[in-house]
Specification:
Largest sheet of chain B: 5 strands, parallel
Radius of gyration of chain A: 80 Å
Strand order of the largest sheet of chain B: 2-1-3-4-5
Number of strands of chain B: 5
Structural class of chain A: alpha+beta
Largest interface: A-B, 25 and 17 residues
Shape of chain A: flat
Strand content of chain A: 15-25%
Distance between the termini of chain B: 23 Å
Radius of gyration of chain B: 14 Å
Structural class of chain B: alpha/beta
Number of helices of chain A: 26
Helix content of chain A: 40-55%
Strand content of chain B: 15-25%
Largest sheet of chain A: 5 strands, antiparallel
Strand order of the largest sheet of chain A: 2-1-5-4-3
Oligomer: heterodimer
Helix content of chain B: 40-55%
Chain lengths: ~1000, ~140
């Protein structure tokens, strides 16, 4: 909750008091109003009572007077009576007016009415007056008056009673409402008082605080005033408004002189008006200003002070007063400068020292850590006290693992004794270095060779230990071992190979011969090589020797005849290598082997080669070549060679790979491999426009090993050309046939699909026609006359025949499409069944005689063959139907590998001139009014028969019957 | 209509064929509980709605006569749908076709059609076939459920 200021407390107080006063005024008004209205009511009631009492009084007067008149007969009384009588209605009317707001009283007033009847009374009075002494009238009057009077009195009493009740009630109501309003009033006043008390109590705290603040302020002002710090203030017009003791002291100017002057006038500060304006601007903007300025004393001495300025705004928020606090920082400044100076000096010195230290440490560290040398210090018991960091890198042991352990632990068991010996030497003589070499265990378990120097420095006060400086010499050691081993290996190699190895000096004087070499050439040493060369080969060998000296390191091949110690020549082949420059060898190395046998064989070969070269070259239109195991040509002959674009010269001694590069070679190589495995391979190729037929023949040596391959290639260009022509011709033909077949097949397929779908869709409307025609005949027969019935019959018949046509078409198109199976068929059984069925379906068949002879069995598709019989037999029945004695004969006979079946009738036959149309679709030789039919039946039969690989034909003479025959092969492939 | 027992459901798009079929069935007193659907879609919708309405969740007419060649969903597809649904797979279905050469007949048998009728051009033949069929399926055959 925010703290409320005394002002807001005051405001709240005023608001509450205001509201309370308003409420009190309102309640008071209500109270007065209520009291007034109650008073009026009470007055009104009392008025009514008074009137009623008046009425009662008048009535009792009247009674008294009438009684008096009765007694006294005084006419004066009569006059009185009359007057009173006339008064009564007036009173009554007044009363009525008064109680018009009360219905109960109204009733009573109404009931008064009958008793206050002035006229009646007046009449009686007149009567009495006229009667003079008449007693009756008088007593009548008195009677009436007393009666009415009694009634009026009693009603009046009632009314008074009623009004009184009313009065009590109203008074009660009045006091009640007064009480309620008073209650409200009092509680309001109480609440108001409480609130005021609370607020005043709360405000009191605030006031207390405020007075404390005031006190503080005064104290502070005093402090500022008395302070030895400089404190002054000025207004917006730059004139000083306050000036404390500090200011007086530091500037030497009394307060009285300073107040009301501008700083320039006082002269304690050298500042231009522009600067002052600028400062003022900063303060106005930021609320404060801080700076260091030079200030002056009256005696012209000066000091540096740090100035802090603040500003106070007036109630409208405009700057009012600027306060300045100045602190003399002159001596502080001086101290600070001194401090900085000495600090800098200190830092510089520290930096120098550090640099030196770091450099020397780095040097030392680098030495220890990066050197391969390890320095360790051990105590008398040979326990490691210190080890240089490089030790970890070399041995793999960390300091933690190694420090305190005995140096002996990691020495190879074989070397321990030696080291022990050397160590005792070290211990016995201080300061004498002892060289030690041993195998040291690496962390990974391997032993590394280490070499080092141990020195006894136990007496040295700084070291107090045995210093061991050592390094890993493993690699060196290994290299030495390797060298020794490899020398051994090489020597044994040279000594044991079959090839001869000899070393000679730069004059080719032999200095070493391997055992194999000695075997070749005999045990001759220290001779010049040339001296043992065959005279014919000397030039060649000399040349090789020169080459050898010229190209150091390159093996120079040579071959030639050398003399054995025993005096005969042997063929040798090998290489010379100048290794004079190679340290450790410093000789010319020659490797060679005895090739005497090979040379002799070669010579033999050359002779036989001559023979077959001649043979090969004399075969016209051919190339004969021979290849060794490396597929290198060692013979190429034949007159085709040049025509193919090659020459003997460029092929000889070249490998196939060099001649035929690329893919061509890959396919060849595969064949070659087969040949060298002992196969003979035939190969067709074409080169330079020539077609070649080649045979690759393996050549076997005595051991049945393939040592070479002969390729015999002959030119078959002409043959190939002829072949190609034939092929092309054939291909063209085949293509044509295929094309035609496809066309035909497509056309057939389309036709089939068309026929099928047309027939299929045509059936639907036909069903409608026939169906509804039938309904017409069946259900409306009575309504149709004969002509109508005939017409309906015609429709029916036509639709039926169309249906038949569609069925036949469907069957026909089906034959082309359906797959037919093949089974052996007993034609006897089949025809019997067909005849039986037809007899059932066609009543006219009954009168025909049908002779079925023995029928040959056949193999074919049962259902289609059955169709053939059905069609042929039903045709026979149909076309012989007009003969009074139809005769049908069915039979068969053999004709070689074929079987002929026939159906013969004695019907109308057909005109042989139109025979060619018989088996065509929709072609008929009779009108349908003669014989019904669709022209599909026989076409279908023909198709079935030809699918079975058979033929059908017919013979006839018009009017003398027809004979349909079909021939089926015993074995056939379904087409 | 939904309350009545459907004994025979005819699905045929050709109105002529449908009328002839219904007439023939009626003549043999077999069209009393017949419903005619004009194509495959309509038939499947109808069957589905009947299954939906039935408390037991199945619809069991004595036989469905189903034309093969129909627009939208043809007879084969209807048959396939019926056989796939366990609630309808036991309903006897007789296929109607224009030709016995129809290669679809084989397919129908594979899909579980119970029989087929060729709608012959000859109405007498058709009437006979319908009559026999109705007699068998409506009067003699006992449904498996």
């Amino acid at each position: 909750m925010t703290r409320l200021t005394s002002k807001s407390y005051f405001r709240i107080l005023i608001v509450i008091i205001g509201i309370s006063i308003l409420a009190i005024i309102y309640l008071n008004t209500r109270l007065t109003e209520n009291a007034n209205s109650s008073n009026i009511l009470v007055d009104h009631t009392e008025e009514v009572i008074r009137k009623v009492q008046e009425l009662k009084l008048e009535t009792s007067n009247l009674i008294t007077r009438s009684q008096s008149f009765l007694i006294s007969r005084d006419t004066f009384l009569l006059k009185e009576i009359y007057q009173t009588e006339t008064k009564l209605p007036i009173i009554k009317n007044e009363l009525q007016h008064l109680v018009s707001d009360n219905r109960n009283q109204d009733q009573w007033i109404d009931s008064l009415q009958q008793y206050i009847d002035a006229e009646k009374s007046l009449n009686l009075i007149v009567k009495v007056k006229n009667a003079g002494e008449e007693r009756d009238a008088s007593s009548q009057l008195a009677e009436k008056i007393s009666f009415d009077g009694a009634k009026i009195t009693s009603i009046g009493d009632h009314m008074i009673e009623l009004e009184r009740g009313l009065l009590v009630e109203r008074k009660m109501n009045y006091s009640k409402s007064i009480f309620v309003i008073k209650a409200y009033l009092y509680s309001l006043i109480v609440i108001c008082l409480i609130l005021c008390t609370v607020i005043i109590w709360m405000a009191r705290k605030e006031f207390l605080q405020q007075s404390l603040v005031q006190k503080d302020l005064k104290r502070m002002a005093k402090m500022v005033e008395e302070s030895s710090e400089i404190f002054f203030s000025r207004g917006t017009d730059y004139r000083l408004t306050s000036w404390n003791k500090g200011a007086e002291k530091y500037f030497g100017i009394p307060k009285e002189e300073a107040i009301g002057q501008t700083p320039q006038q006082v002269g304690f500060l050298s500042i231009t008006p522009e600067e002052m304006q600028e400062v003022q601007g900063i303060i106005n903007k930021d609320g404060y200003w801080k700076s260091e300025k030079k200030f002056y004393h009256r005696d012209k001495s000066s000091f540096v002070g740090s100035v802090t300025a603040n500003m106070i705004r007036d109630k409208k928020g405009n700057p009012e007063t600027y306060y300045f606090l100045v602190k003399n920082i002159d001596s502080q400044k001086k101290h600070e400068e001194q401090l900085v100076q000495s600090n800098l000096e200190l830092e510089r010195r520290v930096a120098e020292r550090t640099k030196d230290l770091v450099a020397s440490e780095n040097r030392f560290r680098a030495l220890l850590e990066n050197g391969n040398d390890i320095i360790s210090v051990m105590d008398r018991e040979f326990r490691i006290k210190y080890r240089s960091p490089s030790g970890y890198r070399v041995t793999g042991w960390t300091d933690a693992e190694i420090l305190g352990t005995s140096r002996f632990d990691s020495i190879h068991p074989d070397d321990k004794a030696l080291v022990q010996e050397q160590l005792s030497a070290v211990l016995s003589d201080s300061n004498k270095p002892v060289r030690v070499v041993f195998r040291n265990m690496h962390k990974n378990g391997n032993y590394d060779w280490v070499e080092g120097v141990m020195m006894n420095m136990l007496d040295n006060e700084y070291v107090q230990g045995i210093v061991f400086n050592y390094r890993d010499i493993n690699e060196r050691k290994e290299a030495e071992d390797k060298l020794a081993a490899s020398e051994l290996r090489f020597r044994s190699l040279i000594e044991n190979v079959a090839e001869g190895v000899a070393l000679s000096d730069d004059k080719f004087n032999t200095i070493y011969r391997s055992p194999a070499a000695k075997q070749f050439i005999g045990d001759i040493t220290r001779v010049n090589t040339i001296s043992v060369v065959h005279p014919d080969d000397v030039d060649l060998i000399r040349k090789r020797q020169q080459d050898c000296l010229k190209y150091p390191g390159i093996p120079i091949p040579f071959s030639g005849r050398f003399m054995h110690a025993s005096g005969y020549y042997i063929w040798m082949e090998g290489t010379l290598t100048n290794l004079l420059h190679l340290k450790g060898v410093n000789a010319i190395v020659s490797n060679y082997r005895d090739i005497t046998q090979r040379k002799e064989a070669e010579e033999k070969l050359i002779r036989s080669e001559q023979i077959y070269k001649t043979i090969a070259s004399s075969i016209p239109g051919s190339v004969i070549s021979m290849l060794d195991k490396d597929y290198r040509y060692f013979l190429v002959e034949g007159d085709m060679l040049e025509r193919l674009g090659y020459s003997k010269r460029e092929m000889m001694n070249k490998t196939v790979k060099e001649i035929f590069k690329g893919d061509d070679y890959d396919s060849l190589e595969a064949q070659f491999k087969r040949v060298f495995n002992g196969e003979t391979v035939e190969y067709n190729s074409s080169r330079n426009g020539y077609d070649l037929y080649s045979k690759f023949v393996p050549l076997f040596n005595d051991k049945e090993e393939v040592f070479a391959m002969m390729i015999a290639a002959i030119d078959i260009t002409e043959i190939k050309k002829a072949e190609r022509q034939i092929k092309e011709l054939n291909a063209g033909l085949e293509e044509k046939v295929q094309h035609r077949t496809e066309q035909l097949k497509r056309a057939n397929d389309e036709m089939d699909a068309f026929t099928y779908s047309v027939s299929h869709d045509l059936r639907a409307p036909l069903r409608g026609i026939i169906g509804f025609t039938d309904i017409l005949v069946e259900e409306y027969a009575s309504k149709l006359d004969d002509e109508a019935k005939r017409l309906v019959g015609v429709i029916h018949k036509n639709a039926m025949s169309m249906g038949q046509l569609i069925d036949d078409l469907l069957a026909f198109s089906r034959i082309g499409k359906s797959t037919v199976s093949k089974a052996s068929i007993d034609m006897n059984l089949l025809v019997d069944e067909v005849v039986m069925n037809l007899r059932r379906l066609h009543p006219e068949f009954e009168k025909a005689t049908c002779v079925v002879k023995n029928l040959e069995p056949i193999s074919g598709d049962l259902s289609t063959i059955r169709q053939v019989w059905v069609n042929l037999i039903s045709n026979a029945v149909k076309y012989s139907g007009k003969n009074p004695h139809p005769e049908i004969e069915i039979g068969s006979y053999k004709q070689g590998e074929q079987r002929v079946y026939y159906v013969k009738d004695n019907g109308v036959g057909f005109d042989e001139r139109y025979k060619h149309k018989l088996f065509k679709v929709f072609q008929r030789l009779h009108r349908s009014d003669e014989f019904e039919g669709t022209g599909v039946g026989l076409a279908l039969v023909e198709k079935i028969v030809s699918r079975h690989g058979g033929t059908i034909w017919a013979e006839s003479e018009l009017g003398k019957g027809a004979c349909f025959s079909f021939k089926l092969p015993l074995e056939y492939d379904l087409i | 209509m939904t309350d009545t027992l459907v004994e025979l459901l005819l699905v045929e798009d050709n109105m002529t064929d449908a009328e002839l079929t219904i007439r023939e069935l009626r003549k043999n007193n077999m069209a009393n509980n017949l419903v005619h659907m004009k194509d495959g879609q309509e038939a499947l919708d109808f069957i589905e709605s009947r299954i939906g309405e039935n408390k037991n969740g199945f619809f069991q007419p004595k036989v469905i006569l189903l034309d093969i060649q129909m627009p939208r969903i043809n007879g084969i597809e209807v048959l396939e749908a019926l056989r796939k649904n366990p609630l309808t797979k036991t309903i006897p279905v007789v296929m109607l076709t224009s030709s016995k050469e129809d290669p679809d007949i084989k397919k129908c048998y594979e899909l579980g059609a119970n029989s087929y009728i060729v709608k012959p051009v000859n109405f007498v033949g058709f009437a006979e076939a319908i009559k026999n069929l109705g007699f068998y399926w409506l009067l003699l055959n006992q449904n498996p459920i």
